[in-house]
Specification:
CATH topology of the largest domain: Rossmann fold
Number of strands: 25
Shape: elongated
Radius of gyration: 30 Å
Number of domains: 3
Largest sheet: 9 strands, mixed
Structural class: alpha+beta
CATH architecture of the largest domain: 3-Layer(aba) Sandwich
Helix content: 25-40%
CATH superfamily of the largest domain: P-loop containing nucleotide triphosphate hydrolases
CATH class of the largest domain: Alpha Beta
Strand order of the largest sheet: 7-8-9-12-11-10-16-15-14
Strand content: 15-25%
């Protein structure tokens, strides 16, 4: 059997066309299941003629041909060329019927012939747009290259890379998909070219997949997550191979998240962006910090299905009345944060998917990868251990949540910790697995699942004394955070993140924008600012500054304890000079400032040794903490 690629590039010759075209709204859908040419418009003139003849009647925004369980979507310039050929054939027929017939079978040849003439025929070619579109085409393979996908899929993939693309690298993913990266001289971004495994299925396998889907969709096969595999086994022929592949593909497109499963199977991919209108825009991905174009687009039906699923699974409204979405999803073994918008704030549904870190980060791991030095990590470690109210600031993607998650491992093992998040991102399950007493509370607005932040805080206070952690401060959470910090002054650590770049920026946001009194903001002990930056190895993140917060007659002030110097985070000397109010406040009863400094030095050596030895995973860090405390 021939693969899809072989069928696309070299279909079997045919003398007749069995295509059955019909308009579905503004799209011309062609049933080519009984056509020897399979509806391959780039290479079969008979199929092309059938489509263009139908387009003589009316225009279409796109053309789709379907055969053997596969759909080929001809859109943008490809659809425009077919429509222009139909317009030209209809307009030129009364002057030259032979040329009209040729325009249906061979639009490029007809355009060349028409533009070579003088007079009305040439004018018609120009007026219908055929002349211009044909002039941009070198061949039908390029001009009529479709996006392809199984009928059961809600994504379409461009099979051919652009003609000017230069191959750079290739890798195979665990899903069986193949990724090729290309450079293009004419664009600023590289191309992330995905070929899912189902695009290499032969006609027999594709037909089996389609039949299994029909069984599943009709309700003839049940069994929850096991149903797709059962449906395949119901229809598969004896001796047919690729059964496991077919089961995985059907699972992906019916119980999974379709093409997102392939994209996030690549551990280099951190983000996927679906821009509205999604049927006209290809997905973009962020790979190792670099944003790339892809050859994949999600159909309108695809994004609508995703929106419905997120509403159902997250209990969040997402409609014209509530046109924004903040949700989570699990794709493969990766947890995603999902941001969505829809009409009227967007031209249709759009999504941004961001993968959480695969691993639970620790402070030694962040020291090892250069996010911050051991001396700065020691200060944060001791501050969290001794109940400082700590705020982590930074722009989007700066690493705030990663650092907050790492700091949770620095809390004493017996600390009761309540985490308040609207979208779960912190390593709560990992902490619980390690034996930590961590309770997650889902905070949300009136339209979401969960309780308002203020009520979440009151609930947290009733759940037992200990650390309070607020995932992100955006609005009402500000009042919650600073009430929590006042509570924290009596003996509980309080941690939270906020968007902002440094002390002055955060103060402006909290005091002016979120209407928190300066005296309340002064309850913050420590402000840590993170930032993304471009390192020699690529996009990275680091701690930009650590400031202690003071409040007095002059209002809120920020005193830098660590700041960047030539790209390196270094001490300002304030702690060493004995001037840090924070360090003085960390002292236990009867403990002098100098003793706290010694503890910081010891903690820095300890964290540095762990980082150097590669003992950075949560289990190793927890064991090291236990031994350190036993040795006191």
């Amino acid at each position: 059997m021939r693969t899809l690629f072989e069928r696309f590039t070299d279909p079997e010759p045919t003398d007749a066309c069995g295509c059955d075209p019909a308009f579905e709204g503004d799209r011309l859908v062609v049933d080519a299941s009984d056509c020897p040419g399979g509806g391959h418009l780039a290479t079969d003139p008979d199929c092309r003629a059938t489509v263009v003849e139908r387009l003589r009647e009316r225009d279409a925004d796109a053309v789709s041909t379907r055969s053997a369980g596969m759909e080929r979507a001809y859109e943008n310039d490809a659809a425009a060329l077919l429509v222009a050929a139909g317009r030209f054939a209809d307009a030129v027929a009364f002057r030259d019927s032979d040329l009209a017939t040729r325009a249906c079978r061979d639009p490029l040849g007809a355009a060349r012939e028409a533009t070579g003439r003088a007079g009305p025929v040439s004018d018609i070619a120009a007026e219908t747009g055929l002349a211009e579109l044909a002039a941009r085409a070198d061949s039908y393979e390029g001009a009529l290259a479709p996006s392809v996908g199984p009928v059961i899929s809600r994504a379409r993939v461009g099979v051919r890379p652009p003609a000017d693309a230069r191959f750079e690298s290739q890798r195979e993913l665990d899903t069986g998909a193949v990724v090729r990266v290309y450079e293009q001289p004419t664009t600023e971004r590289r191309l992330y070219h995905l070929e899912p495994v189902e695009h290499e299925l032969d006609e027999r396998a594709t037909a089996t997949l389609s039949a299994a889907y029909d069984r599943l969709a009709s309700g003839a096969v049940t069994g929850g997550q096991r149903a797709p595999a059962r449906a395949v086994r119901r229809v598969v022929d004896d001796g047919q191979d690729q059964v496991r592949t077919l089961e995985a593909v059907l699972q992906k497109h019916t119980r999974g998240y379709g093409v997102l499963v392939d994209l996030f199977a690549d551990d280099r991919v951190s983000d996927v962006f679906a821009t509205a209108p999604t049927d006209a825009n290809r997905l973009r991905v962020r790979v190792d910090g670099e944003t790339m174009r892809t050859n994949v687009r999600v159909t309108t039906e695809g994004v609508e299905a995703l929106a419905s699923r997120f509403r159902r699974e997250n209990g969040r409204a997402f409609s014209r009345a509530s046109p924004t979405l903040d949700a989570t999803a699990t794709v493969g073994d990766r947890r995603l944060r999902v941001a969505g918008v829809t009409e009227p704030v967007s031209e249709g549904i759009a999504f941004a998917f961001r993968a959480h870190e695969r691993e639970a980060w620790t402070l030694p791991a962040l020291v090892e990868n250069g996010t911050l030095p051991a001396e700065a990590a020691a200060l944060l470690s001791l501050a969290v251990e001794r109940d400082a109210a700590t705020l982590l600031a930074g722009t989007r993607g700066a690493g705030k949540t990663t650092l907050l998650g790492a700091l949770l491992w620095e809390l004493p093992a017996d600390t009761r910790t309540v985490v308040i998040e609207d979208t779960p991102e912190l390593p709560v399950e990992r902490l619980q697995t390690a034996g930590r007493d961590v309770q997650l509370l889902r905070a949300a607005d009136d339209d979401g699942a969960g309780v308002p932040p203020s009520e979440a805080l009151r609930t947290a206070l009733r759940l037992g004394e200990g650390a309070l952690v607020l995932g992100e401060v955006r609005g009402e959470e500000a009042a919650v955070l600073y009430e929590a910090m006042r509570v924290g002054a009596s003996g509980s650590a309080v941690l939270g993140t906020i968007h902002g770049d440094g002390g002055a920026d955060v103060r402006e946001r909290v005091v002016s924008d979120l209407d928190v009194a300066p005296s309340s903001f002064g309850a913050t002990d420590l402000l840590v600012t993170c930032e993304p930056y471009q390192s020699a190895e690529g996009r990275a993140r680091r701690v930009k500054a650590i400031e202690e917060v003071t409040y007095g007659d002059e209002g809120v002030r920020f005193e830098p304890l660590f700041e960047l110097d030539d790209g390196e985070l270094v001490s300002t000397g304030r702690i060493a000079r004995g001037n840090s109010r924070l360090v003085d406040g960390l002292a236990r009863s009867g403990e002098r400032y100098a003793a706290v400094r010694e503890r910081l030095d010891d903690r820095a050596s300890w964290l540095g040794d762990l980082a150097t030895a590669g003992r950075t995973d949560p289990e190793a860090v927890c064991n090291a903490h236990a031994r350190r405390r036993e040795a006191r």
